[in-house]
Amino acid sequence: MRTAWADGPEFVTQCPIRPGGSYTYRFTINGQEGTLWWHAHSSWLRATVYGALIIYPKQGSSYPFPKPSREAPIILGEWWNANPIDVVNEATRTGAAPNISDAYTINGQPGDLYNCSSQDTVIIPVSPGETNLYRVINAGMNTELFVSIAGHPMTVVAADASYTKPFTTPVLMLGPGQTTDILVTMNQPAGRYYIAARAYVSAQGLTFDNTTTTAILEYKFAGCSAQPMLPLLPAFNDTFAATAFAAGIRSPTQVKLPDPVDEDLFFTVGLGLLDCKIGRTCGGPNGTRFAASMNNASFVLPSTLSILQAYRSGVPGVFTDDFPRAPPMQFDYTGANVPRELWQPVRGTKGLKLKYGSVVQIVLQGTNIVVGENHPIHLHGYDFYILAEGFGNFDPATDKARFNMVDPPLRNTVAVPVNGWAVIRFKADNPGVWLMHCHLDVHITWGLAMVLIVEDGVGDLETLEPPPADLPAC
Q1: Cα 381 from Cα 311, distance rounded (Å)
Q2: pTM, 2 dp
Q3: In the beta sheet, which residues pair with residue 78?
Q4: Element (H, E) at 241
Q5: Which reaction does it catalyse (predicted)?
Q6: Among 370, 436, 432, which Cα is nearest to 6's?
Q7: Which end of the chain has a smaller Cβ tally under 10 Å, C or N?
């Protein structure tokens, strides 16, 4: 709160830390506990620069469930056998989709099902009868992942550092950026059981990394020679399983939603294509370049000054604050034949200003331009309530009746269903410049992002703090 300088995304709240330089992120943890994570936010560096950020209950308080016997992080990653910066730079040069990853990882290791990696497979020791807390984080770059543990149901107790109504499930689905805390009881015969993760792929016809990463849940006295059991994971394209999991997540008690709504916004999210420069042929469909956008605006990062610095200092020419509150043109967003003139977004660095304390509701509407896909949309600086999700085009006349106004989940990343929509609501009480983007990094590279500029309120406690002395220079 009030320390947007510690948020991290390059050229949004700061300039990147230079080679050999340093910057100390200073912020106060207030009213949050649970599992978050930290990661680089410059180009594709977060492919390997990431880790868990765990906030424990205050001293003297405890979890809202029986204290687990032990805890462990389960951090899902994505691995290339090449330098990931080279991968994205090559894709940017050609306009094609970047090469897919070569492996997924759990706590940095691919596991038994890849060549030459089984000697380093992660082993998580357990004892019979105990109930353990596992903090699952999807730190992958471009892939939503199904996760399961052989022979062991999982009870979800938190998501994105907010507690949930406990519910038991055989499978999790996490988009990049999402976290899920689970309780698992060791009630099976002593042995070795795989924890496994593989892709959930909602877009039709796209190539993807179809490998499976594993770690081993190993009971005491099981013996290291026992062959682990594999869990049954959903099919790669099992949207029903992904939807059912998301629908199970609810706030633990009735919530007091911010109300009434001051800003009723409608953002389309999806892909697009840009014409190649004259005389060149690019690597996208029919010689074009891949792009992505929100409300037909394809986000371009500045290169000389961060947006927050420009906003704070009144420097012109770095960004504009004319991001549209609704799509420039209404159309059949999820239809099979979106007019070709709508496939080409407009590039720019656009933000949208919000008054301090305003209640903001955003319909995030997926589109079927190029291909429909599930988009994990992350908002920096805020948690938000997910009021509803659905498929097809959002219809306010009928879909508002589906809003969960009792116990909607509080999250920081929402997986907008493939060719569908989600509605989120929050109070704009954290001043600064906050990036909203798809957490599939290939999509943010193509421009699926925008910034919300939350103005200062009244008095010091509603005002952005001054920039720190060690803020990196451009």
Answers
A1: 17
A2: 0.97
A3: 104
A4: helix 239-247
A5: 4 hydroquinone + O2 = 4 benzosemiquinone + 2 H2O
A6: 432
A7: C
